[in-house]
Amino acid sequence: MNFDDVSADIESVVLTPEEIAEGIARMAREIERDFAGETPLLIGVLKGAVMVMADLARELNIHVEMDWMAVSSYGKSTKSSGVVRIVKDLDISLEGRHVLIVEDIVDSGLTLSWLLENFSSRQAASVRVATLLRKPDALSVEVPIDYLGFDIPNDFMVGYGLDFAEAYRNLRGVGVLKPSVYKD
User: Fold this and answer.
1) Backbone angles phi, psi at 111, to 5 degrees
2) What does DSSP say about strands 174-177 and 157-158: parallel, antiparallel, or unpaired?
3) For residue 79, what is the enclosing H or E element?
């Protein structure tokens, strides 16, 4: 879906599909360098990371394995509640594995902080983080980001996996959603 299809709902375009592809390629080259000789386990955080995970995995020129985890801290709100709930756990053991968490966005950092602690307790050999987007002004807890696509403003974004009430995930780019769409 293109921005033209939802132009009445989008305030501004933040990242075009071409810019996203460039960011994913840059991250992939860094990951290939750091995981040379390893087979990392990529863990996508559902649902938002589906687009990032698919494009990143296809861009990587190393062997990888993939698994998915679904956690929730948003519900139908535009802000994280900070309370993390596992909706779907992993199918693969992390013990002794080099893990790469793949996220669409890190905003408050609370969910990612919880994931890092959780994965560490599962005896992963190492845990690194790749995220397409980070909102530095929204961080409420410091979290390490090993591979970063872009820093973005602290606006409510949709597209490329980011949603509002399950809509807009399939936009090919990332844009700011007009407040009139999500405010009563």
Assistant:
1) -65, -45
2) antiparallel
3) none
Contact 160, 10 (CB under 8 A): no
Q: Angle CA(29)–CA(38)–CA(110) in degrees, nearest 5?
A: 70
Amino acid at 44: G
Nearest residue to 177 via CA among 1, 10, 63, 58: 10
Q: What is the pTM of this model?
A: 0.91
Determine the pLDDT at residue 145: 98
Mean pLDDT of 49-62: 98
Return the pLDDT at 72. 79
Query: Which band of pLDDT confidence, cut at 50, 70 and 90, is reported for residue 79?
Result: low
From the list 9, 55, 104, 107, the catalytic residue is 107
The Cα 163–Cα 159 span in angstroms is 6
Active site annotation includes 34: no
The whole-angstrom separation of Cα 133 and Cα 161 is 11
Angle between helices 17-34 and 50-59 (to 10 degrees): 60
